[in-house]
Amino acid sequence: VVNEAKPCEIDPSRLRDGEDAETDLGNLFTYVRDAVNTIVSSGLICPPVMRDVFSTLKSQAMLNYPDNTAVRYHAVTSFIFLRFFTAAIMGPNLFDLYSDILDPSVQRTFTLISKGISGLVTLVSSKSNNVTAKEEYMAPLFEMFPKSTQTDIKM
């Protein structure tokens, strides 16, 4: 993301002259898709101590919500994505993932990637399959993801 510095702005009120919202949407989709795929495939290298935490979280969710079989997945997925991955993507400097000062447009791209991942997790965790977004400009991004991606996030 830092090296490529591809434009990813999809908020119409923030688009600069000459920027193409469709191209930016495609760039953002690629970054979010790649991030989700990397995160989902990293499960096998998750440290044992974290797996223990996730197991406890899953058990507690099942204990507190015995009638909701999906809650065990939603609790763990939301916790992992929203507390770890999206925070690290939005603030890579805070997690020692990048040490230089980020260009504002690159920082905005990281923010949009984080919002994209967060929105997908929220969509997966909701009881509705309707694509809605707190920020309407994000809806086209979520519509680009196939249901298989949503299934992968649940795991």
TrEMBL record:
InterPro entries: Ras_GTPase, RasGAP_dom, Rho_GTPase_activation_prot. Gene3D superfamilies: GTPase Activation - p120gap, domain 1 (1.10.506.10). Keywords: GTPase activation. It comes from the Eukaryota. SUPFAM superfamilies: GTPase activation domain, GAP. PROSITE patterns: RAS_GTPASE_ACTIV_2. One of its GO terms (molecular function) is GTPase activator activity. Residues 1-122 form the Ras-GAP domain. It holds the Pfam family RasGAP. The keyword Cell wall biogenesis/degradation does not apply. This is Ras-GAP domain-containing protein. It comes from Candidula unifasciata.
